[in-house]
Amino acid sequence: MGDAKLYTRVKASDILTELKNYEKKPRSGVYQKTILKKIIVNLSIGDNEVIILASDVVRILFNMGYEDLEVKNMCYLYLITYWKHCPKEAISALPFMVEDYKRNSDTSVIDACAALKTIASIQLKAYIDALTPLLEDAFNDSNASIRRTAAYCVAMIFRSNEVENPGSSPKLLQMLNDALVDDDLDVVAAALNSLGDITLNTDKLKLSTDKEHALKLTEGMASCQEWCQVSILNALLTFVPQDHKIAADLIDLILPYLQSDNSSIALNALKVIVYFSYYINNVLDVFPSLPQSISAAISNLMLRPPEVQFLAMRNVILLLLDKPALLDLDIRMFFCQYDDLLYIKDTKLEIIFLLANEGNMDLVLAELQEYAMEIDIQMVRKSIRAIGNLAVKIEPTSEKCVSVLADLLSESIPYVIEEIAIITRDILRKYPGTFDYLIDMLVDRVSLIKESDAKTSIIWILGEYSSSISKSVTLLKQFSETFVEESTETQLTLLTAIMKAHTCQPYNKELHALVEDILEVTIVDIDNPDLRERGLFYWRLLSSGLPNIIDIIKPRLPTLKNDQAALPDHVREELDLCMGSIASIYLRPVKQVFRHCKPRTLSDSPALVRQDLSNSRLSNPLYNDRRSTLYRSRSSTLSSNSGSFRSRMAFTSQRVNDLTRNENNEPSPAENNSESHGLSGIMRKLSLKK
């Protein structure tokens, strides 16, 4: 039977019947091998019915495993996959695996290593008890491949062994420690990798490397295979330099690996260089060409497959937020190509936003304007959002950015107008009275706005600037006609906007009637408790006759600022030590990504220098105002007056004179956020979601 015919789902009962029918026939071994292939195919497609065939698989292993390597490997794969569901059958196969290792340790290294890995993969007490003496023998074997496999096996069984045989754990660790002085550097790398994995997931243990060992490892890396080089680079993070010279020497030795063809080596070399830069005073004085070397490595990574590009660019974002002085990037490297995947385009837009400055703004705006005229609506929206955020971010070039937005507005494309409406509010707050002509252009095209978030933004503008917009009352009245059908966010914003307009024009009879109608609908006809309570709040407020009601309903908004606020030091350092990992993709501390993983921190040393490698050209608002970000959540575009009424109930119960607290610049409880909340906000700004 051809292998292609095997790749079909077959019931376990049919396989069992077929197996019994062929047992007594001549050449039954050939048929059993074919049936075993069917079992593995069903295993690979997730058909767990084959669990009931465990005893038959073990029988085939004993009958044919010694003579047929393919049969043995398939049986091993089956037992590794299903040992939790059939522990008795797995234990019955243990003698075969032990014998297989002993038979082949001198003759077939591949078979011996496969037996060791299989025993280590099955976390049963009997297997762990049998593996410990085998590991002692393997660490003393003359073959480096067996010693290297033994080192990896210790990490595989360490956790289970601590539970089953806590007394033997020091013995296993001692085996790994002894392997650190092995003559073969690949074995040393395997031992370091295992010790790193054990210590990273165990609070009680810590791995440290001394100066001589670190230099020996770094100098000998060239003779290792590539994945062993990755292990050594990660192990160098456990070395704490005690003076600036040793850190500089190690960076000098590692710099060539930035140009490695292996992406993992290049990224880990970058991580180690950033780590040792903390232990050098004025690293750019010692290595003036370091930014060019790092940027050249990133250029090489940008030629790799999309997945590698994405990982590299997420780490570029981390460096731009933390140490932009270590980079000397050409922004054109990150311009989007027509065949880029969506997540690549998203990440490139983030980097373009971070790299933009007065010097390259003309180039950036020309590129973003081109993106904004594409047929991909999602790309168009994000490009427009980027242009608007650049207007807020870099004040000297704001007029150029707004001019581009005005040109796009003149095209009268609905989704373009909707996105510009969303970003215009931030521009108006940042530059009050400067770009009011955008309001007139939006008002003339308000009939093209259909999306909920864009409606929310334009309604906010109509309420905030109702006195200067001639058609504000008419437009608010039009929006109120579909009040019941709108989303909750739009309803809250519309209610607040009408109240703002009324307080600014208290003698407008049309507005007075509109207020009565909207409050009646809100209080009587709406089931949403937040909206109804907001309406009751405004009703009571209007009935109170307070003289300063306009200061309550329409307070003076603070101007958006671009003051740069850095990440907390320990978070920034932890992210630097996670470069090239999943945590660096999420731009979150490792504890928030993997709950049981131990966070990495910089160790104290006389050489430790926490220098500022920020760059003034990257004064970006990602750090301080959620509304000034490139990829903020659309829900954050609501004004502070459009929040949940429940969150403001305490506000209404205070005395009226307490309402002026914000005008006196007194901090509110919400401003005293914990550090984790601030970090979460920063990370949300860099998410891929729109």
Global structural class: mainly alpha
Number of helices: 35
Low-pLDDT runs of 5+ residues are 616-690
Beta-strand segment tally? 0
- Taking all Cα atoms into account, the compactness measure Rg is 33 Å
The whole-number mean of residue pLDDT values reads 83
Helix content: 55-70%
Strand count, sense and barrel status of the largest sheet are:
none
End-to-end distance, in Å? 52 Å
Strand content: under 5%
So what's the overall shape? globular
Structure overview:
This protein is mainly alpha-helical. It is 60% helix and 0% strand. It is built from 35 helices and no strands. The protein has helices at residues 12-23, 28-44, 54-64, 69-82, 87-92, 94-104, 109-121, 125-139, 144-164, 169-179, 185-200, 211-220, 226-235, 244-254, 263-277, 283-286, 290-301, 306-322, 342-355, 361-371, 377-393, 398-409, 414-430, 437-444, 452-464, 472-481, 488-504, 509-525, 529-544, 549-553, 569-576, 582-586, 590-593, 649-653, 675-685. Helix 8 packs antiparallel against helix 9 (144-164). The longest helix has 21 residues, at 144-164. It is globular, with a radius of gyration of 33 Å. Residues 616-690 have low confidence and may be disordered. Keywords: Membrane, Protein transport, Transport.
